[in-house]
Amino acid sequence: MANPAAGSGNGKLSRLLDYSSTAWAFLVARRNRPFILGLVITDICNLACRHCRVANVHNASMTLEEVRGHLQRQYDRGVRYLYLEGGEPYLWRDGDRRLPDIVRLARRIGYYRVHVYTNGTVPLDESPDFTWVSIDGLGETFRTIRGIPVDHVLDHLRRFKGRGGIVYTVNTLNRGHTGEFLEFMQREFPGRRVMFYLHTPYYGKDELLLSRAQRRETIETLIAHKRAGLPVMNSKAGLRALASGNYFHPTNLWKVIDTTGEYPCCRAIGNPEVCAECGYATCAEIVLARNGRIGPVVGLLGMY
After folding, report:
1. How far is Cα 67 from Cα 184, in angstroms, rounded to an integer?
2. What is the pTM of this model?
3. Predicted local distance difference test score (pLDDT) of residue 269
4. What are phi and psi of 11, to 5 degrees?
């Protein structure tokens, strides 16, 4: 059942009680169940990024009714936070329905926060609560990884007035440019911060994967950037966890659903090589926050 109308007193009280119950289950009772849903509404994408092999595999999109069914079922099971993913979620279509229609639907059902992951090649809508734009470098670095100039994405980011951050996935091609990128962001986009991921070998180890030494060096460099006041969103604890892999994963704290099925943690579940090399920084932040680490808790409050 959808939440009561937010405008009513009973609705507000119901939401407060629900929120308190969820916070208790996550932070205090530490329930081992999903709180977050990553919904892959389409695998259609307009890019062919060097590090991605999930785009345009099935050329499939969920219908709005399929989306509604997934959202309602997961909400009824206690999930309260939603990530809309792709492919490129801004390319999702069902008749005249577009991405903002899914955001509004999720809110009507009762989801607390709706995040969107996008490549930024389409003008950004301000209806999501938080928008993650993937930018893995500047100039030729970005073009080599993503196949297009970065200027178009930056223009869309300049026009965007909503809340959001940048995802920069570090690999062997761009690892030496993190300082330059952060200084550019601080100068050109004050207030926007950058969450650094590490390239994860979802499709087998490749030339983009950092060696263990490169991984440690990258993490220490990012911690130094953060200490210097550059806009690194990762907590220092989260970065150190990425360097060591010393945090509990895979985890049941979220699930991913696409047109092929449901997966705990990520769609590579059961692949020990992927888990060992996991660079999904938000995973580390959420797991550490749930275990009471202050830095990750503060960072997540900034996003949620």
Report:
1. 38
2. 0.92
3. 78
4. -65, -45
